[in-house]
Write a structure and sequence with these properties.
It contains twelve helices and nine strands. Strands 5-4-3-2-1-9-8-7-6 form a nine-stranded parallel β-sheet. The longest helix has 23 residues. The protein is globular.
Amino acid sequence: MNRDSMNRIDATYARLRAAGRTALIPYVTAGDPSPAATLSILHALTAAGADVIELGVPFSDPMADGPVVQRASERALAQGVSLNDVLAMAAAFRQRDATTPLVLMGYANPIESMGVNAFAERAQACGVDGVIVVDYPPEEAGEFATLLGARGLAPIFLLSPTTPAARILAVGKLGRGYVYYVSLRGVTGAGHIDIGDVIAKLAEIRRHIVLPVGVGFGIRDAASAQAIAAHADAVVIGSRIIQEIEAGPADQAAERAAAWLATVRDAVDKVAKRAA
C-alpha cells in the first residue's frame, strides 16, 4: 500500500464531506483509568458518534499536555502501560471495529525506543490508521512520514496560532489524513477558544493545505464544539472527556464518556445539517 492510497481516515472524511457533516474526534489516553477499561471506552465512544478516535500513548514528560491529560498518563504509567500495550489495545479494537479510524498520538521517545521501522510495521499490523508525534516537527519528520506512508498510515501534524506560513506549507506537503490545529497557545485544556481567531487561522491554513483541518484544545462543551463545527472539518476533544472518565468508578468510565460525547455529537450534527 503506498502513501497515496485511501485509508480509513480518507474514506471517513470523504463520506462526511458528501453528507455535509463535521467529524467528531475524541481523544483518550490508553490505559486510563485502567488497561481493562480502555477497550470498552473506545467502543462506547464509537457508539456515541465518534468518527475517528485518537488514542494517546502515555509518556512521562508530556510537554504539550495540560494537567488533565498529564494525570491520565500518570495513571496509565503507574499500571505499567507501554507502547507495546497500546498497540495491543489497537489490535483488539480493530478485531471488533473494522471501519472507525484509529490514530495514535504521543511523543517520539517511546517510538524511537521501539525503533521507528518496527513501530511502523507493528502499527500497520495492529490496524492503526494515523500517527501524531507531538515533538516531530515536519522539518525533521520526512523519513518517519515516508515509513508510515509506505504502509498506508497517515503522518498527522499539529499547527498552532503561531505556526508560520513556511511550516504550514511543509505540513501540507508531508501530512496525510488531516491536520490538527491547536486553537490555543499553551497546553491541552488551557483557556477558552476565540472563534474569530480560529476562523482567521483556518482561512490561512486552507490557502496552503487541502487536507481536512480538525480543531482541538479548549473545546469544553457542546456549545464550543458547535461553534467550531461551523468552520472546521473536525472537532477534537480530549481533556473534557478525560474529566468524565476520572469523575467516578473505572467500571463506569465508558458509560460516562459516551453519554457526554453523545451530547456533543447532537450539537455538532445540528450545525452540519444547516451547513449541508
